[in-house]
Predict the 3D structure of the following.
Amino acid sequence: MDSEIDWAAMADLLELEGETQLSYLEQAFADLGELNPRRVLDVGSGPGVAACLLATMFDKAEVTAVDGSAELLDRAGRRARRLGVRLRTRVATFPEGLDGLGTADLVWSGQVVHHVGDQQDALRRLAGLLEPGGVLAIVEGGLPACWLPRDVGFGRPGLAARLEAATTERFNRMRDELPGSVRVVEDWPAMLTAAGLTDARSRSFLVDLPAPLADGPRLWVRRSLERRRGMAAETLDADDLATLDRLLDPSDPAGVDRRPDLFVLAVKTVHSARRPR
Ligand SMILES: C[S@@+](CC[C@H](N)C(=O)[O-])C[C@H]1O[C@@H](n2cnc3c(N)ncnc32)[C@H](O)[C@@H]1O
């Protein structure tokens, strides 16, 4: 498991992110085609937004949220009770802990594979969980979320692009430092095929919440910017850090809590493939 990241501390951020981007999950699950799964696994479920939606959509199936963080699974369990859906939870560290989970007709794994050192091996293990004819779907790649205009009215324009560049560097370092880290061409459909699956394809979904934002998505933007402010502190110059601090100032009318022009625009890509019968 990625030991650098305190996942439990990210519970709010992950749940807000999932709720903000719920529309893409609905489209992505519908796009998986005519599925009538008996068993569904959400591997790396975090606080269970996708898992609970899976349990809603496939209400005859046994749906299990699997994660390395017991705290996040508690959160997923509470979410399921609140929504009145049947959800099982199972603590397991990915990828070794996948053995023993049993097989499933649908395995969903959103934004998790890139936290494993050997991504090809992770896909192979995930594929190994499938029943014949079962589907594996992962969320990787896509396009990063935009929240703010290029020129926010103060500081040097283009802050979001520089923040994204800093995040990319941080991501590279995170991957380099993972145990057993292996570089691979991140051609996800080719990797799914190399994992023994067939009919690999990619579909991208737009998350488009125009301004003005409701409270939940607005809070997600705040939490995300706070996190990025922490991660990019060594990389950004003083001018950009001052701009970020102003954006994060709750009392500033031009800050993210109050400005009217905040939006969410992102692209999520789902790569899926099937185990041959
Ligand atoms: C970026 S979050 C994604 C959460 C959710 N699937 C989503 O799409 O929002 C990554 C999740 O994977 C879990 N995770 C990361 N590495 C893991 C590992 N090696 N074993 C088990 N869980 C892991 C974390 O605890 C976290 O809940």
Remarks:
- Residues 28 and 270 are 7 Å apart (CA to CA).
- The first helix runs from residue 11 to 20.
- The chain has a mean pLDDT of 95.
- DSSP finds nine helices and eight strands in the chain.
